[in-house]
Amino acid sequence: MSTENFEQDLHWTRIQMPILSRALNLLPDLTGVRLACSMHLEIKMVPLIEGLLNKGAKVFLTTCNPGTVRDEVIEYLKTRGAEAYAWRDMSEEEQSQSFKAALNWGPTHLCEMGADLSS
Q1: Can you spell out the DSSP letters for 43-108?
Q2: Which of 20, 25, 26, 42 is the most exposed place for a label (fewest CB within 10 A)?
């Protein structure tokens, strides 16, 4: 996917999520929060992760489903300050390693949206 298409998709995604935007604005300062997230890493997750980063949280990303990862989403979120151990079509062993990396990162909180990091 080209950068231009990604930017267009991201713009469309942002304007389709006004409730999320309002909810993120209501969050307190998240400085000191280390959030390990296991989720579908599609473009619709960008506004959420950006909002958490903008509130001061540190974020580590991994995926609950390697088939749903958009590598350009990972790369974009890394430029915004997120750390990540995920890519499209990673193997089961690589996914297991990503969960270990997320937990070894030292999160203060877990965000489990499809995969259980705490088991």
Answers
A1: GGGHHHHHHHHHTT-EEEEEES-GGG--HHHHHHHHHTT-EE---TT--HHHHHHHHHHHHHT--S
A2: 26
